Amino acid sequence: MLTNPSQVIIRNQDSLSQHKVLVLNHEADLLPKALLDVAASVDALALDYHHYLHLAPHANSKLRCYFGHELPHQDPIKPEKYDTVIVYFPKAKPLAPYLFNLAASHLVPNGQLLVVGENKGGIKSLVKLLPEYFATGMKLDNARHCLLFGSNLEGSAPAMKLSDWVSQYQLITPQGEISICNLVGVFSEKRLDLGTELLLSHLPTLSGRVLDFGCGAGVITAALLKAQPSLSLECVDINAMALASCELTLAANGMTAKVYPSDGLTQTTGKFNGIISNPPFHDGLASTTSIAQNFVTDSAKQLQHNGIWQIVANRHLPYSDIIAAEFGQLKVVADNNKYKLYYFQHK
């Protein structure tokens, strides 16, 4: 089943006849595979690891699937070129200019750019957002509550340099001052949010192998290593820009940790002495409860004897029932008007 934006692309696929196509920031469907009905070849770059895992089993000689913030193994002087680049307009609007620059770096001269997105997701501002090296965006289709815009590469785009897309700032934490590197599209308030502040104010003493689930830009990991530098930290997230941010944050603080993508805890292995998280579960999402359930269930299986599990979560969401059902006991070590800090030690 194709998402609504993907269905709009299929409605307009004739313009891709025998093209070499690159799809950026695709969704959890098989649109890149479907485009092979008309395109000569398709490469797909997912910035969401779950979306990559959905498509990857269908890779073949004409369909290459990648996950990350950029295509791998590229010559920075002569990156691979495509006749058409399709961009799914990102939910995090600040990420859009990055994707347009990335698209331009991979387009042949006068190559075709297609941008698709849901009406409610910011796509209506596309014309104002397109850089000057693209022709004025033209609306090609309006269907299924989505818009499709087309343009062409008219000028030369700046070379892609990750350093151009990162903001670095100092953050005061209960563990001391740390440097945070935040790439476009990654949530950051340039201060401690209330949930993370509650968590860091009550960090337990840990040892051995520790997992930071949903690491984001690496705030919790950097604070942990600031206070307990001997820890063996593993940082997982589903978002490519978050993982790249976390790596930059670690480098800026002279710290090391293992950073890798994971859909939930699926790509983690073995057991942990500690699992710490400000989990990426959000109000209003239908998937909130199921994501929380899977995380808690998997955590219970992967926590070492005497291991410590501590998360901060919105007090209005039903985590206490889920946690109690899996761990058999529940301790709230701190709370504020918005969050609760849940703690469990495996005995």
From TrEMBL:
Main location: cytoplasm
EC number: 2.1.1.172
GO BP, sorted A to Z: methylation
PROSITE patterns: N6_MTASE (PS00092)
Function according to Swiss-Prot or TrEMBL: Specifically methylates the guanine in position 1207 of 16S rRNA in the 30S particle.
Family to which the UniProt record says this protein belongs: Belongs to the methyltransferase superfamily. RsmC family.
UniProt keywords, alphabetically: Cytoplasm, Methyltransferase, rRNA processing, S-adenosyl-L-methionine, Transferase
Known partners and oligomeric status: Monomer.
Protein name: Ribosomal RNA small subunit methyltransferase C
Catalytic reactions of this protein: guanosine(1207) in 16S rRNA + S-adenosyl-L-methionine = N(2)-methylguanosine(1207) in 16S rRNA + S-adenosyl-L-homocysteine + H(+)
Residue ranges constituting the Methyltransferase small N-terminal domain according to the UniProt record: 6-169
Subcellular location: Cytoplasm
GO MF term list: methyltransferase activity
